[in-house]
Every structure is written in structure tokens, then in C-alpha cells.
Amino acid sequence: MEVIDLSSRSFKGLRTLELPNTVYNTEGRIYIYEDKDKWNKRMHLVKRLYINSGPIFSNKLATINSLVGFEEQIDMPELVYPEKLLTVDREIVGFTMPYIPSTNLKEILNNPKTPVEVKIKYLKDIGTILEKMEEVRKYAELEDFYLNDLHEGNFIVDEEGTLRVIDLDSCKIAGNMPFCSKYLTIMNPSICNLPGKYKISNFKCSGDIIPNKDSDLYCYIITILNTIFGRETHRLPLETFYDYLEYLRKIGVSTELIDIISDIYSNKSNTNPKELLDGLEPVFYKCHESAFKTLSKIRRCQ
To answer: Using 50, 70 and 90 to split pLDDT, how confident is the model at 297?
Structure first.
């Protein structure tokens, strides 16, 4: 894998990438780096990792190397791959990736001015990406290729309107150890109660859950729920979760979609709900937490 070496002085001169207030990067700090190809300036992002030694760092380097090595076989332009390792005074501290002018998906989904059909479109695009990854697992000798840390903040929409996946360095690939995932945590008892479906990792210095198809679809469905509910739903008490699903049924959400959502906390395999998401458009605003709570309050008073 190619390496870019900067001096400490040069690195200190890099500009920090300003992230939206709602988007966090827990593994490293992002900088903007420019280089030249003859007369053309090219912009890249640099991710300087907070942890740059030990087993977590070694696992990160192995993951980055696998992504670069398998990029042609994966053949998914929606994915934003790492480019080169970054050294500062010859010490490996991170890696570079393309700079893509874009808007973070979380901003788009959280913005009340974004048309509902646009939100639904990008949620469906996530489902398409997962379908393509399933094909990669079948035909590219990458049986363990999963996004793992799938959440709204790890997608961007570029200037052409294409949904892209970022922070791929936390993915599952080529036998690496699992990384932490925002929605896959042992702090969620609903997941831990299903160890045959969401497999708990026994690796030291790794994420809580070993990624698989069910875990990626779980994160996808949680992302959909977050969008229609108006806040994060992965830690809702199960009683509230099922009350909300019953509420969705009563306002006209299809039984098929509700059953798919319900399955995330059962022993059944998870299903990609992409093709059913258009049905949310007519009732989108009724799905919000405020409407759900208002109706629940009225019923308690009756």
C-alpha cells in the first residue's frame, strides 16, 4: 500500500475538516490535504487516528489494506475507499481518502425542509447498497464483507445526488476483528437476548457484536425508524417499541413492513425492507414521536 509521509511541521499546517454539529468522529480527527499531479491540485481527506499502536491499530491497518486490495473485486462506486497510509515523520498515524464535496445524510434526514420523497429515496438507496454487498459476498470471495457501523452519519450525498458510504475503515472484511458500531452494543439488552442472531464478540479490543447480514439489516431498519420517529430508537424499551409498531399499523403502515421491523427483535432472519418504504410517504408526519405520544396520552385519559 502506498504511503504519504509528512513532516510534523507540514502536518500542523493542514486544515481541520469542519463536521456538522450532529456528526461525530470518535476514532480520529479529519483534515484536508492537497497535493499536485503535475499542474493539477487534488484534495484529499486525512484521518489521523486517536489510537496509533496496539491491537486496535493493527486491526485498523489490516482493514484499510484489505479495502484497498479488494477495491476492484468489490467494484462498488458508492463506497469511499481509503487511498494511502499517512506517516508523520515516518510514523504511521492514519490514512488518506478522497475529498468529495457533499452533504452528510444525517443532515438531510434531520432537516424538516427536506421533502419526504427525498428522505425515502435515500433510505431506499441504503437498501440498494446492502443488496449490492450481498452480491459481493457471493461472487468476490469476501464472505464476511459487512458495513458494521451503519448509521446516518456514515453516509454522504455527493454533488450529483449519489449516496456514498464513508468511514469504511470500521467495516468487517477479510477476517478482521469487529469494530465498535453505534447501534450494535451490549448496552442494548434487546440485542443481547438474541445471541444466536446477533453474535457477541469474544475478541479483546473489539466491537460488541460480530457483524453479519442480520446486524447490517438491523442497523438499516433502526436508521429508517430514527428518520420517521424523529430521534434514535435503538434503545427504546421493548414495550414502547411494540406500542409504536401497533400505532404505525393503525395509521396505515403496511402489515408487511411492520412485520419486517418487528423481526429485528425476534429469532427470525432480518429482511431488507427497501421495496416497502414508498408506503411510508403518505403517513410520514404521522409517524413522528410527537404524534405517537399525543395519541398515547389521549388514550390514557379516556
So the answer is: low
* Beta pairing partners, 173: none
Closest CA to 34 of 25, 24, 22, 43: 43
Neighbouring residues of 145: CB distance < 8 A, sequence distance ≥ 6: 74, 133, 136, 137, 171, 172, 173
- Residues facing 15 on adjacent strands: 32
Question: What pLDDT, on a 0 to 100 scale, did the predictor assign at position 130?
Answer: 98
Mean predicted confidence (pLDDT) in 252-260: 98
Higher pLDDT, residue 38 or 111: 111
For the question of whether the overall pTM of this predicted structure is more than 0.85, the answer is yes
> Is residue 273 within 8 Å of 280, Cβ to Cβ?
no
Residue 272 amino acid letter: N
**Distance of alpha carbon 278 from alpha carbon 136, whole angstroms:** 26
Instruction: Give dist(CA 8, CA 128) in Å, integer.
Output: 42
How many residues are recorded in the chain? 302
Closest CA to 146 of 112, 118, 174, 115: 174
- H helix or E strand, kind and range, residue 238: helix 238-250
Q: What is the DSSP string of 52-85?
A: -SHHHHHHHHHHHHHHHHHHHHH--TTB-----E
Phi, psi of 9 (to 5 degrees): -65, -45
DSSP assignment of 184-204 equals: --TT-HHHHT-TTTSPBP--T
Burial class (CB in 10 A: 0-12, 13-18, 19+), 39: exposed
What cell does 130 get? 446492502
